[in-house]
Records
---
Amino acid sequence: QVQLDESGGGSVQAGGSLRLSCAASGRTSSSFAMGWFRQAPGKEREFVAALISSAGSTTYADSVKGRFTISKDNAKNTVYLQMNSLKPEDTAVYYCAVRVQAGSPYDYWGQGTQVTVSS
């Protein structure tokens, strides 16, 4: 089992920055990837960013590329999402997730943290 605890959400004006954190506990040593997703009101949950644990490689949704950065502190077992140049359309509940194996769906999810960007 893996437990995920997100924090760092809040309200910010357009153009501002926030950093989300996701502290993982439990059996995280074998995770293939950790990712961030978001869900805006009335919309489907969408992929934001992911980090492949072994390779350290990252991938981003086109809508956040160049503005958001995913990173990981292995010593703290924590994944971060640095969000810069925030836009009102970034407003959503942000979730972190763990994928245990390549090619499988994300297995574990956090409870989510609200990000609100005002114009």
Note: DSSP finds no helices and eleven strands in the chain.
---
Amino acid sequence: QVQLVESGGGLVQPGGSLRLSCAASGSIFSINDMGWYRQAPGKQRELVASITSGGRTNYADYVKGRFTISRDNAKNTAYLQMNRLKPEDTAVYYCNAEIKSRWFNPVVAYWGQGTQVTVSS
């Protein structure tokens, strides 16, 4: 079994910062890409940022220069540092990871349970 557990969400004022964490645990042989997605009420889930096992990053245009994704491979953990937050960043943020449980298993995409981020004064 593999679990992704997110933490770090909450309420913050516009212009503030939050740092999200996503820890993968359980039967893990390797982790390929890890990513953060978000879903606002009434909208589809969208990619925020992703990072490969080698550290190559990709960002949605609307967060470039404000958000930074990183990972600690030794801890099977990904982070999302969010700065200069805006009310339109309000959403549930989900972690995603592509994981092989054993060397002979296929890569499976796992999701965390989501963490609420609310940007409001």
Note: The chain is about 0% helix and 55% strand.
---
Amino acid sequence: QVQLVESGGGLVQAGGSLRLSCAASGNIFSIIAMGWYRQAPGKQRELVATVAGGDRTNYADSVKGRITISRDNAKNAVYLQMNSLKPEDTAVYYCNAAGIATTGIPFGSWGQGTQVTVSS
């Protein structure tokens, strides 16, 4: 099993910044990609940003220029630096990791989510 633990959510005023962290642990052989998704009340979960091998990144159009994803392969961790936050960024943010377990079986795991609330 692979577990993901997120931290760093909270309440911030519009224009402020937050940094989310996510660490993966368990029977990990390799992680192929990690990412962040979010789900606002009454809406579907949506992609925020992902990072794969060679630090290839992908961002939702709504966050480009304001949010940066980074990865620490040695720590099996991924981070989300969020600047110039807007009320519409309010959501539960979920960490995701996809890779290969020590058993040789592919895995895809989700964290428990961390709440980000941006007040206007």
Note: The mean pLDDT is 97.
